[in-house]
Amino acid sequence: MRESESEQVARLLALYAALDRASAEPGTPAPAPSSLTPLATTRKRIETSLARLHQDGLCAIERSRFGQNKAKASRSWSTGWLRVLLAVIFFGCLSASAQTNFTAGLGPVQITLGGGSGSAQNVDSGIKVLFIITLLTLAPSILLLMTCFTRIVIVLSFVRTALQLQGTPANQIIIGLSLFTTYFVMAPVWDSINRDAIAPYQAEQISSSDALARASDHISAFMLKQTRPKDVELFVAMAKLKPTSVPDLPLRVIIPAFIISELRTAFQMGFLIFVPFILIDLVVATVLMSMGMMMMPPMTISLPLKLLLFVLIDGWELVVRSLVRSFGM
Predict the structure, then answer these.
(1) What is the CB neighbour count within 10 angstroms for residue 296?
(2) Domain count of the chain?
(3) Is 211 a member of any domain?
(4) Quick one: which of 119, 149, 171, 288 could link to 182 by a disulfide (CB 3.0–4.6 Å)?
(5) Cβ atoms within 10 Å, residue 149
(6) 238 within a domain of the structure (yes/no)
(7) Distance (Å, whole) CA 82 – CA 95
């Protein structure tokens, strides 16, 4: 068993006292010079051990004091913040109860509490602001799923995979090219929405619900044009809708049908992109096997040939042109 610090100190002090008594007895003969060195060495070791134990004890005491001070400081800090928060809530309640109307805001956005002639209108405006903020959070999903972005980004990713390039071009470049191509393809739809929905609404010729309905009609027409009838029938059957004409289909049926149609079309185009590069891999592997170069990886030879072929046929122009034309432009 390991001795405690108190037991070690007691044992070292007893040994140190025994050495002093042995050296101080009058009848003890003077030690030989050869025996002075072990005695002095032993005494030196005992003194070093006592000093180290004393230092360790002081360090432990200081650590415990520091921990206690830190805990007291954290408790006082939290208590101070709690007092400040309670004071703010108390004075806020007093000011709210002392006023009939309380208005707070930052910039053009204001929140009004209390009665008044325009209270109903303020509540309606607040709901509209809340709806717009929620719509902004869903804007990326709308961009990805209700436009041609899905097909474009998947096909460009297939091109990079078929070339066996791990990080070239980078994801930022592929997404940026997809975004600008999406903007180009969707420009006629945006123009129609701006002409029939946004501009009349800004001129206060139609209400917000009418503007939303007109914009939905244009985006629904675009999605239905790119959606297979089989996918539309699938979601109509699962929604258990009554016989409805195609332009009157709800968005909850059109959007998922459009998404799976885009995925199918993108994978078909990706397969066609893979075919010529697979043929290059087969030819290179066959040539290397016939030459007995089985230890050389085929990718070492096929990758430069793929890049050369892709550059010679102007591959990016062919891919982008095929993508744009696949949307009927």
Answers:
(1) 12
(2) 1
(3) yes
(4) 149
(5) 22
(6) yes
(7) 20
Higher-confidence position of 139 and 75 = 139
Please choose, from the candidates 179, 139, 140, the residue with its C-alpha nearest in 3D space to the C-alpha of residue 156. Answer: 179
Average pLDDT over the chain reads 75
Q: Is residue 40 part of a domain?
A: no
Q: Is the dihedral of CA 162, 164, 167, 168 positive or negative?
A: negative
Show the tokens assigned to 266: 């993108």
pLDDT of residue 113: 46
In the block, which residue shows the tokens 């309606």? 124
The residue to which tokens 């007092």 are assigned: 83
pTM of structure: 0.59
Structure tokens at 3: 């001795």
- Max intra-chain CA distance, the chain: 126
Confidence (pLDDT) at 158: 93
What are the beta bridge partners of residue 159?
A: none
Assigned domain for 70 exists: no
For the chain, helix (H) and strand (E) counts, in that order, are 13, 2
CA nearest 60: which of 70, 71, 52? 52
Residues of the domain holding 235: 122-325
Q: Are 216 and 254 in contact (CB under 8 A)?
A: no
User: What span, in angstroms and rounded, lies between the C-alpha atoms of 70 and 4?
Assistant: 28
Note the Cα 146 to chain centre separation in Å.
Answer: 23
Q: What would the pLDDT profile of 24-73 be if each residue is shown by its tens digit?
A: 555 544 444 444 445 556 556 656 665 665 565 545 544 555 455 555 55
